[in-house]
Write a structure and sequence with these properties.
- It comes from Actinacidiphila bryophytorum.
- By secondary structure, this protein is α/β, with parallel strands linked by helices.
- The protein is 41% helix and 16% strand.
- Strand 2 (34-39), helix 2 and strand 3 (60-64) form a beta-alpha-beta unit.
- Helix 1 crosses helix 7, helix 3 (70-84) packs parallel to helix 4 (107-129) and helix 4 (107-129) packs parallel to helix 5.
- The model has no long low-confidence stretch (mean pLDDT 96).
């Protein structure tokens, strides 16, 4: 791995106190970026991630912010840009995983899911674009469920993740003239605290992938890092599947 590919670059990752978000924040720091990230509740976990980033010789900033609150997510973007002097990379990772029968999920659940999974990334991207110059990168983390809803109970979650495709394509058109690329990554089943590879349904879920296994969070982070790098300078409006063949 090139430990200088993101030298002099700055990043903001939403929802990065654990799981895929933490892996992305650490991967960008390993590549030389200074990284700000948001978290909602677990201050101890957030500080642990920040300490790892600082241990790599990079600057870190942990920002407590609810991605479902418009003012909070916009303020987090502005604070990150102010701390670093600019913003080069935004990774929209924070999400609300709300599943259950349609009969059990009402208006409040709908509003929360859309607020976190759709409005949050849109407002973060909008705010970030004001601080980015040519070469800026906006990357959103979606879900394979947005492409293949294999199990019941995922209507609301799939709806919000599918919306990111339209957002990504539209933003790619709007921000392309500024030299900012916008891409979407759909992970498949990934081994995290919230979705462990040894969980009660993991064997069944793994069977729906072509590779027959869960991803490590670092495998998802590696593709995010590629989309953030100079090597992906001609990729924009793309939807990239990193799902072990779940959607083939």
């Amino acid at each position: 791995m090139d430990t200088t590919e993101f030298d002099s670059r700055t990043a903001l990752v939403t929802g990065a106190s654990r799981g895929i978000g933490a892996a992305v924040a650490l991967r960008l720091a390993e590549g030389g970026a200074d990284v700000a990230f948001t978290y909602r509740r677990d201050t101890a976990a957030a500080e642990a991630v920040a300490d790892k980033i600082r241990g790599m010789g990079r600057r870190a900033l942990a920002l407590r912010a609810d991605s479902g609150a418009p003012a909070a997510i916009e303020e987090a973007v502005d604070r990150a840009a102010a701390a670093w002097g600019r913003l080069d990379i935004l990774v929209n990772n924070a999400g609300a995983y709300m599943v259950g029968p349609v009969s059990d999920l009402g208006a409040a659940d709908f509003d929360r899911a859309v607020a976190v999974n759709v409005r949050g990334p849109y407002l973060a991207a909008r705010a970030a674009s004001r601080h980015m110059r040519s070469g800026g990168r906006i990357i959103s983390v979606g879900s394979n469920v947005g492409e293949r809803t294999t199990f019941p109970g995922h209507t609301l979650y799939a709806l919000t993740k599918t919306a990111l495709t339209g957002m990504t394509k539209g933003l790619a058109r709007d921000l392309g003239p500024l030299g900012i690329t916008v891409n979407l990554l759909h992970p498949g089943p990934t081994d995290t605290d919230a979705n462990p590879a040894d969980g009660p349904y993991a064997q069944t879920v793994s069977g729906f992938t072509a590779l027959g296994r869960y991803a490590a969070a670092e495998e998802i982070a590696a593709v995010v890092a590629h989309l953030a790098s100079d090597a992906a300078s001609y990729m924009t409006g793309a939807v990239v599947h990193v799902d072990g063949g779940f959607t083939v």
